[in-house]
Amino acid sequence: MSAYEELMGWARETQALAQVAGRLGWDQETVMPRGAAAQRAEEMGAMEAVLHARRTDPRVGDWLAGAEAPDAAGKAQLRLIRREYERAIKVPGDLAAALARLTSRAQGVWAEARAAGDMAGFAPVLAEIVALKREEAAALTGGSDTGLYDALLDDYEPGASAAQLQAIFDEMRPRLVALRAQALNGADAPEVSGTFDEAAQMALSRELAERFGYDLTRGRIDKAVHPFSSGSGDDVRITTRTVPDDPFNCLYSTIHEVGHACYEQGIDSAYHLTPVGQGVSMGVHESQSRIYENQLGRSRAFCEFLYGRMRDAFGEIGVDGPEAFYAAVNRLHRGYIRTEADEVQYNLHVMLRFDLERALIAGDLAVSDLEAAWNDRFEADFGYPVKGAASGVLQDVHWSVGLFGYFPTYALGNVYAGCLHAALRREVPDLETHLANGNPAPAIEWLHQAVQRHGGLYQPQELIARACGGETPGAEPLMAYLEDKFGALYPG
Description:
The chain is mainly alpha-helical and 492 residues long.
């Protein structure tokens, strides 16, 4: 075999093992017995040690030196393998395994602390994670204390920098704050009310998942505390959650995770179990989940359809008519939880986390001071105090699993989604008619062709620009969409 063929055989085996490791994480979040946490930490640490050994195998360097790509896809494969190899050889194997063991254990510690609203119970293990992530970042930067956060961010959004994201967020923040103030000072929007059977919520969420293109022969829907999507290729699983008095929590969490899952399911099957055969970045991934959930799922047209299905499933729901239902779905409200935030305020939640985690990694903020810093920043940004750690600093799982550098990709995903939505409207001019009939398929097909099927073939910003007719991604399409939509809902 040629060097390229040997390298790709190695890559497929490595990707397969990574999928097995991911399945351990899915199991931990869904059906694993609580008493298995310590053993699972050892199992995941062992898997990470195996994967790290493969990723740093000296043969990879030799294969890369001698490999000749047969085509454009092959060049992308080599680019992604080289990038991962060069990152992996900088991180000691014992550090990678220690992080895997620690973050597996920390998930259980976080879940218990969140349930009890006890940041003090989580702080010691979080301090350990921050120390190891700083050590990892220093390894990636060659021992330098500068650029630590960018080194971690690059794992989730290749090519992006904290300075670039800060410039985008600085452009968005004042317009978001002004739009929020206009809405919250206006008339109250209607709300759905009642008790919504949780089995009926799950049944309707399954129907919506299939309408949005999720292939349940290659996936499944389970419940978890924090909804997520896991896997790639022919095994892509999602979770959602049910709340008896809040059906939107379940339905829109499902649509959101279906966006992630459809991206993975939609990648060209020729790329399965290769570096190109997965989402190119978390920002692009989030663009799919957010456009599914918001620009499509919360649109006036789709709400017209969903109102009828809600009445079929639950009877009286406390709002009268599709227009009132649309206003209820898009209601701006005071709240604490990022995943439950409306489109206007969601990015402000992300910006808060972005700034705090940068300070943690830089060493400018101690974990012991994190809760107070969170509470101060939240009150400054949102105008009211946090009511407790469970609705504040403990609400997200990300830091417990070491995902530093991940949070800003949520807001970047919204920016990408805004660009894609503008292009979609141009390319599918009769989209409203399809959505009003409960048929997002034309939009999903356009996203499949423009974004999803390519996997990691292109760099993140290049992929979005190609989908949008060559336009460089920026915040303006998203902000124009938000100001138009919520300016009409809350004329002020």
